Amino acid sequence: GNTVMKQNSEVTQITQRLVHEVMGIPVVLRETATVSDAVVTLFLENVGSLIVIDASGALAGIVSRKDLLKVTLGNAQASSVMLNMVMTRYPNIVTVSPDDTVREAIRKMISHQVDALPVVHPIDPSEGPPKVEVIGRITKTTITKLLFDATAGDL
Ligand code: ADP
Description:
CBS-domain, single chain, 6 helices
C-alpha cells in the first residue's frame, strides 16, 4: 500500500545526507604529471577523471577522459604533454563543501553536466588569490551506490 511513499522518504533521506558522510578518496595527480601518467592512473584507479593539484597541494584543475582523448587527436607527442595544458583549470571547477547535502551535489552535477565534483575546504594563502584543498570526491557512481544500498532490504 504505502510502498511508493516509503520509497520517496528513503530517497529524501539519501539526498539529505551530507557530502562528507558519503564522499570517496580523491584520485590526485600533480599538474606537472603527463597525459601518459593520467591515462595509466585512470586505468589503475578505475575512475573517469582525475583531480590535479599544484605544488602547494591546492586544487589546480580536473582532467577527464574526454580531455585526454582530445589531446591525443593529431598529436603524436600527446603522451608527454603536462596536465596543466589539458585540464579544466581552477577556478572554473565546480566543487562542493563537505557540509553540503547530497542533493546539492546532484544538482551541481546535473546543471554543470559533469560526472565528478571535488570536495573542498578553503585554505588561506598568505598572498595571492584564494585557494582550496581537496579532501574527497563525489561522483555519479557514488550516488548510484547510495541508491542501490538503500534497496538492500527490498526484494
Ligand atoms: P567525461 O570526459 O568522461 O565526459 P566529464 O563529463 O566529467 O567526463 O567531463 C567533461 C568536461 O568537464 C571535461 O572537459 C572536464 O575537464 C570538465 N569537468 C569535469 N569535472 C568538472 C568539474 N567538477 N568542474 C568543472 N569542469 C569539470
